[in-house]
């Protein structure tokens, strides 16, 4: 299926306004999805016999920096029977950089189990909260680590538990 | 009882801690804890140029550095739009060294898997044969484990004189050794009893957990990115994709995953033979051949996002690039290590198994912790 067909399918199945934007001039086509609809979209793409995107290859959390004030999550889907690839993206405005108020996205853990660890990683390093994740805690860093290292305004910690970090 | 396995258990090939909730000898639940090795690859990549990051990709999966840098380099080349200008000789050399590296990586996997099960000799034999590959790659790149040999737009250096002939010699030397190894380990009744019907991974679970490489193929899915994406010189080579058939038990058990690796070594040997022969005949070394001729002066891809995937020995290795089009430094790089996803299935596989079987299951997944933590 081409990207236009997938787009039409999603609008027919999930509802009008589900695809916000489309990037096709690059090497891979990207569909930007309305953030509240991402779980429905993924379930549709996984179960529909026309698309059958059964393999979530990669999930990346992206911080666009304090000037732009946006966070996004990118999903790279693969269909093993059809040998096709599709990139989905959700984006939210979020200017608050504090730890108390994290950007919130929906968890796709119930659609693809592999999202479990990837979402924990995005939470750990970029500081994105995934609503509906069963076990959202840090995965690579210690539980008491302060800050999210892959944020653009992250200042390297000097001390960890009184130990100087070089 | 709660048991801690690791962080320094020999079967974890690095530092991984498994928290086991046990009832007698039965594992009720296994919870992996990682992050002991986290060396911030993605953070480093945000402050270094595309070219400077290649050594860091080598350190991710340190047993298959060539495959890692190959994936990274191909992604950058495709973003720059120069992937079709790479000389054929360079592509063939890349595939040659990548397949050599794949064999050496699989030899470690098989040898240490023998140790996990309790067989010591296969480990020594595998390391003896791997030594030939390591010294050959050292001859080509100057380093034994972290090569930094494949560069954007070319190679660090042309192959040393006589390398292709030595590759062919290695293939003739290694084929009977592989037969011996099969007699010693693959067809060994003790080994089969320990691995067959243990840790059976059904296809749907494997796909749902994002498993790839020999773990996915062991479950019977014919999915190899070298054939699916047809990158580099792979479309011109002849090779098969081995899948698990359940010869010794059910499809997708530990023995199947092990056997897929053994069969992949045979396929890689075929590829090395074909590459060396072509490099010796119609892609001969010429005095004016410069492997760095296509090296771009400034590596500034236009503003775009691109997901590059390639088949490393452990499965689908992916890099998600976000380029802003202004600098030589990527704005964001996310790397998808195959071991990361393959390891996540361990809690599913280890429900209700014996502790000793858990070692067999963990070893059959063949993780490299440098790639899990990155």
UniProtKB/TrEMBL annotation, chain A:
- One Pfam family, short name please? Complex1_30kDa
> Which leading EC class covers this enzyme?
translocase
Reactions catalysed according to its record: a quinone + NADH + 5 H(+)(in) = a quinol + NAD(+) + 4 H(+)(out)
Q: Which UniProt keywords apply?
A: Cell membrane, Membrane, NAD, Quinone, Translocase, Transport
User: Which parts of the chain are coiled coil?
Assistant: none
Q: What is its EC number?
A: 7.1.1.-
Indicate how the chain sits in the lipid bilayer.
Answer: Peripheral membrane protein
Q: Where in the cell is it found?
A: Cell membrane
Name all NADH:ubiquinone oxidoreductase 30kDa subunit domain ranges. 31-159
Q: Name one GO cellular component term.
A: plasma membrane
Q: Per UniProt, what is one GO molecular function of this protein?
A: NADH dehydrogenase (quinone) (non-electrogenic) activity
- InterPro entries given in the database record: NADH_DH_suC (IPR010218), NADH_quin_OxRdtase_su_C/D-like (IPR037232), NADH_UbQ_OxRdtase_30kDa_su (IPR001268), NADH_UbQ_OxRdtase_CS (IPR020396)
> Quick one: where is this thing mainly located?
membrane
- Identify the Gene3D superfamilies for this entry: NADH:ubiquinone oxidoreductase, 30kDa subunit
Lineage top rank: taxon: Bacteria
Do you know which PANTHER family this protein is assigned to? NADH DEHYDROGENASE [UBIQUINONE] IRON-SULFUR PROTEIN 3, MITOCHONDRIAL, NADH DEHYDROGENASE UBIQUINONE IRON-SULFUR PROTEIN 3
Cited HAMAP family: NDH1_NuoC
Q: Per its database record, what is this protein's job?
A: NDH-1 shuttles electrons from NADH, via FMN and iron-sulfur (Fe-S) centers, to quinones in the respiratory chain. The immediate electron acceptor for the enzyme in this species is believed to be a menaquinone. Couples the redox reaction to proton translocation (for every two electrons transferred, four hydrogen ions are translocated across the cytoplasmic membrane), and thus conserves the redox energy in a proton gradient.
Q: Which family does it belong to?
A: Belongs to the complex I 30 kDa subunit family.
Subunit notes for this chain?
Answer: NDH-1 is composed of 14 different subunits. Subunits NuoB, C, D, E, F, and G constitute the peripheral sector of the complex.
Please identify the protein, giving its name as recorded. NADH-quinone oxidoreductase subunit C
This chain's source organism reads Mucilaginibacter ginkgonis
